[in-house]
Write a structure and sequence with these properties.
It contains two helices and ten strands; from the N terminus they run αββββββββββα. By secondary structure, it is an alpha+beta fold. The termini are far apart. The protein has a domain of about 120 residues: SH3 type barrels (Roll). Strand 3 and strand 4 form a beta hairpin. Helix content is about 15%, strand content about 25%. The longest helix is centred in the first third of the chain and has 16 residues. It comes from Cafeteria roenbergensis. This is KN17 SH3-like C-terminal domain-containing protein.
Length: about 190
Amino acid sequence: LAGASAPQTSAAPRLPGMAGMFRDIEAAKRAAEPARAPSSSAMKPGSVAPGPADGPAGGSAVPHRRMERGAMVRIQNQSLQDGRFHRCKGTVTRVKEAEGAVVVKVRGSEERLVLPLRDVETLVPRTGGQAIGIAGAVSGKRLTVTACDVDAELVSVQVAGSGEAFSGIPFDAVAKLDVDYFEAKVASHGSRG
């Protein structure tokens, strides 16, 4: 049986079954890492990163983005308290622009976490849902989503109060609005309450 199998010439031996598949997936992930922008590792459609837009290679082409109080987010940090909050939803209760961070109240608990913007992604509301603008012409405005194109990652919105309509707005220029929080805290106390 000494000549039954040919010696392998690749640097890493081929593992049988699922173990080999997982090794191949991990190797592909590691190989792709240097090609990605540093802030894009946790970025998904609808997410916001600090600083200017990264351009075509780094994700969104939205020229200026800023998080707003009342925006609903999903926590993307896997290491925070052993992953306890990973993929949990919450509401932005405070924006710390100087630090590039936000304070997030975790949904269903009284926990408040200070997180860098790279560790949160915004949620995009369904058609008919309430949103807050976080970039471009709709920044800081309360909105209603009138149409949503998931494939193109674009929404059409109408500004609350004025009725002004915008179409072709990128997902990462809007965030789902926690209406209860917004009406109780932000609208009743002003923009800095």
